[in-house]
Design goal:
Blueprint: E1 6-12, E2 21-27, E3 32-39, E4 45-50, E5 56-61, E6 65-68, E7 71-74, E8 77-82, E9 94-97, E10 103-108, E11 114-119, E12 124-129, E13 141-144, E14 164-165, E15 171-176, E16 181-187, E17 194-201, E18 208-213, E19 219-224, E20 229-237, E21 240-248, E22 259-265, E23 271-277, E24 281-287, E25 294-301, E26 307-312, E27 318-323, E28 328-334, E29 341-349, E30 353-358
Antiparallel strand pairs: 1-2, 1-30, 2-3, 4-5, 5-8, 6-7, 8-9, 10-11, 11-12, 12-13, 14-15, 15-16, 16-17, 18-19, 19-20, 20-21, 22-23, 23-24, 24-25, 26-27, 27-28, 28-29
Amino acid sequence: MTRKAHEIWIGAYGAKDGVGITRVELLPDTGELIKTAEYGGIENASFLRMNRDGTRLYAVSETDTYDNDNEKEEGGQLASFPVDAESRKLGPGLYYPTHGNHPCHLSLTPTEDWLAVSNYNGASVMMYPIGHDKRPGPPAIRFRHTGSGPNADRQEAPHPHSVYFGSEGHYLFVPDLGMDKIMVYTRGPEAHEWSAHDAVSLDPGAGPRHMAFHPSGKIAFVLNELNSTVTRLSYEEPGKLVRFESITTLPSSFEGENTCAEIAVSPDGRFVYASNRGHDSIAIFRIDELTGELHASGHISTRGKTPRNFALTSDGEWLIAANQDSSSVVLFRVDRQSGLPVYAGVDLPISKPVCVLIR
């Protein structure tokens, strides 16, 4: 029996009149990656999200200015595209200002009634209510960050790098690279009521970038871009992260420059993966099933330069890595026992890919 293809969307850096979003299919029976569509109309589509029923694709346009009726406006944009249920083609996009420069990440609540966007160079997080038609409404809430860190080149100001809603949908977690903190916000009983709840400090100069929750919902892992570490946090109490140990993403023999980019937990909750830009690898960690502690299990080359993003299929069988500076998307088959991704012999050329979304 032929298994169903995995639907994959690749976001990329590039001009508005170039290819910003590519649709790809992964055929699990043969291990083939096939381009099925390419779309322009969006500049620097650096992060993508899709709603649960697959009818709408959301993307950030990571810019510091955009065209609005032939007038230059400051900041970036949130884009919303309808997706045809049968053909899976994107329809015309709707665009909304993010009121901050270089939006780089977005997330939906589990109930899909709110969407959050982080403005990396805007020191802010914008929140948009989502209507019954799945379209975002005008931005209703803005959280502004203040602070800095010891790295003068990268932490001169706040840099909210990503946004994640907890599984209960009542808390929003925002790793801020510039502040060395994870900011936590909570929703109130009123429709548009969100407020500050907590802040978790990381090591000075760590530069928290992305995070991932364990399937149990009791553990979270944050990837620190600047010092190339993963920090384990417990999440026993709703809205409350408690920090534990950090572990390096690099082998002891590596002496070059490196920054980290993406982190993911395997669907079975046994492994954590993190990407290294410089070492150009995926680091693999085994999760202790009793304590939740991480144990280094090795590295695999991404067979390209600057793996900004990667993603795992929902069954944990495949890992797809996007190498930004070698313009390649590379397929790996994951060994279920060891958790080690093994090169599947497939490299797909895509210009400056920076996001992998697997539906």
